[in-house]
Amino acid sequence: MDLHLKGRIAIVGGASQGIGYGIARTLAMEGAKLAITARRAPDLARAAERIRAETAADVLAVPADCRQAEDCARVSETVSGVYGGIDILVNNDGAPPLGEIEKFDDGAWQKAVEQNLMYVIRMARGVLPHMKTRGGGSILNITAISAIQPIRGFGLSVATWSAIIGFAKTLSIEVARYGINVNTICPGYVETPRLEKVFAGGGKDPASMRRELEAEVPLGRIGTVDDIASIVALLVSPRGSYITGATIQVDGGLLRAVR
Questions:
Q1: Is 259 a residue whose pLDDT tops 70?
Q2: 9-188+225-249, superfamily in CATH?
Q3: Predicted local confidence at residue 216, as pLDDT
C-alpha cells in the first residue's frame, strides 16, 4: 500500500536509536524528507548516515536537547528553513529514571515534566504554524503502555505521559479545522535499550525476566521497533488522516482494560 508520504517533511525526535530510529527509517523508506533530532550529536550523525545509505532519502540531522525550550524552537526553525515547511512531527524521547514515587524530589519531577510534557507542548507549538500554512499535517506522540496501565516504579513517566494524552486530545479538537490530526501511541514491551535497563534492574536473571514479560503478553513475544514504526507511518500519512484524538496501544494485547 502506498502511504503517499513521498516528499512529506517529517521531524522525528529521539531518532539516534530505538523506536525513534525505527520510525525515522520507515518514514524515509516511504519517501519522506526527514529531519531527525537527539541530544548526542555523534550518535545522531551516524544514524542519519545509516538511513541515507539504506533509503537514499534526504536526512537532516539536528542535534537538540528536547528539555530546552530554545532547542525545541531551533528544530522547527531549522527544518522549515532547509526544507521549506513541516508536515509531520513525531514526538519521541527517552524516559525519566525509574524508582518509587516518594523518593523523587521536586527537581526530579521538574526534569520529568520538561523532558516528557513540555517537550511535546513546545514542539507542537513550533510546527503548527507551518502545518497550517501547508493546509494540514500530523502530530504523533510516543508514550508507553504504562501511561494507561501504570506500572510500579514508573511514576515519573506515568504522570507526565498521562498529561500528554490529555494535551493531545484537546489539541486534536482545536486544530482539526486546519486538517491537522493529533494522536498518541502507547507501546508495550519493545526491544529497545530502555527495556534492557528494565531487565538489568529487576533484581533477577535477565533471561528469566524476559520470559516473565513474554508470558504477560497474550501474543507471547516482546514487540519490535518495526511493530511501532509501521502503525506510526500509517497514522501520520494521508491514509490515516481521519484518525485523530486517539490513544492507541501497540502492545500484543498487554492492556487488560476494556475502554
A1: no
A2: NAD(P)-binding Rossmann-like Domain (3.40.50.720)
A3: 93
